[in-house]
Amino acid sequence: MDSNNLFKYIFALVVVILIGYTIFVIAHNKSNSINNELDQTSTLTNIKTDLRFAIAELDTINPIISHNRNVQEITKIIYDPLVTLNENYKLEYCLAEEIAKTDDVTYIIKLKKGILWEDDSNFTASDVLFTIDRIKENNSIYSENLKYVIGVDIIDSTTLKITLSEPVDFFEYNLTFPIMCEKYYEGEDFATTLRVPIGTGMFKITEYSSNVIKLSPNENYWNINKKPMATEISINLYGTIGEAYGAFKNGEIDVLSVKSNNIEEYIGTLGYKKIEYKARDYDFLVLNTDGTIFSDVNIRKAISLMIDKNSLLASCFDRGGHVVSNFSLDMGSWVYNKDLNVDVDTERAFQILTDDGWDRTTNSWQKKYDGRNQRLSFSITVNSNNNTRVAVAENIKEQLSRYSIPVEIRYLSNESYNNTINDRNFECAITGIRLGFSPSLTTFFGENNIANYYNEEVNEIMNIVKNTNDEGLIIEKYNRLYDIYLDEVPYIGLYRNTEMVIYSQGLVSNMMPNCFNIYHNIDKWYRQ
């Protein structure tokens, strides 16, 4: 072989090797790209793409009418809302492309174009109007969302105008209800029909029987970035939650949400994982800052530093299910980025009172006003029919008695309690609220709030926040409000309830449940 032919041979061999290496690298990277979405111990050949969920005590699969917790959870992957909320309760557009607030009570909603129902019909503004009407005329769990909606006008097939009777802070967060298809219900009574609703969501119902509902991926799903790995979901139906617990224990269910804080009594402690998250029921002490002893900010501060909330929870909730909470937004909201919990610090509390002119005797704290001694004592108003809050009031009374602060408990009937709270005829009261998903703080700091609390800077913050969509500005203003809250203590947060998701060890998921949706990231879920 002459030198020229040898050179050509070597060159050709090098080219072949380089091409082969390039193909190998591309294939290897593609394989890694796929497997990076999987658990490190999984391969494309050993995963299971069928998931198994549960509904106990099914009433109807129609999410507008259903009052079943499991239905409301599962239908979030079948029926889309105008807007949804992520893991941090942050609003994200779903079927809506844009929402514009034109004045305090008017909103223009622009819908995404090209969205199809699973039967290939077009999603339009008429479907939104139809859904709103059905919610308002039925006893829906979403009725409260639309409480102040007095008008819905269709501008064109992808545009609506919603008019409210009065301003609602962060109203967009109320648009999280699932949208139903108007044409699908032509000639049907929405409230009584047995037709299985169609949706625009990630999955669609393919089978509906007395013991199982089966889902498969919706080929018309509009979000091309969320193609699910699951090829089938079986939703097993059970007559009672106890039956569902038994099925989970036997390995027949992959994931189940529970409220029970003693779940181990039903399913044991082995063979599954669990995630506990903060829920929406928030209890607190409201301090009447107008015309009572709690007009004095120093007394409010001192009392807040004397109450041992961990001890309170251990005494009143010995079976768990609750956590200390000092602020309404601390259940995971995107605007809550400070720790507002107040630890017990009796030394500092005593110093605050002393600096304010109070002297501690054997049985009380006293201070001279106009030559007369005033004793530091107050009453806690509580609903006598709420056994939990009664126990909490009595625990706080016992704690403060150790520091020479006598507390009287006013046990009132339901009606008397509600009238007393509404009339602001109390010094201090234990109350609570089931929180919404928006970052609104109107209940606590708005006009005519239950603490009779007024602060000019807080008022300005509230006005700024409700009139801006600038997320950075909202966080900045709320951070300032948090500082004022800790300094002025118009409320003393106590605790909130927790809920839990249990799931099998074989389920691979980036599980991030919250009160709005336990199926975040379900497009990446699979079984091993």
Written overview of the protein:
- This protein has 13 helices and 22 strands.
- 36% of the residues are buried.
- The strands form six sheets. Strands 11, 12, 13, 17, 18, 19 and 20 form a seven-stranded mixed beta sheet that branches. Strands 1-10-9-8 form a four-stranded mixed beta sheet. Strands 4-5-7-6 form a four-stranded antiparallel beta sheet, with helices on one face.
- The termini are far apart.
- Helices cover 28% and strands 25% of the residues.
- The protein is an alpha+beta fold and 528 residues long.
- The protein folds into three domains: 42-78 and 201-271 and 505-528, D-Maltodextrin-Binding Protein, domain 2; 79-193, Dipeptide-binding Protein, Domain 1 (Dipeptide-binding Protein, domain 1, Alpha-Beta Complex); 278-498, Dipeptide-binding Protein, Domain 3 (Dipeptide-binding Protein, domain 3, Roll), CATH 3.10.105.
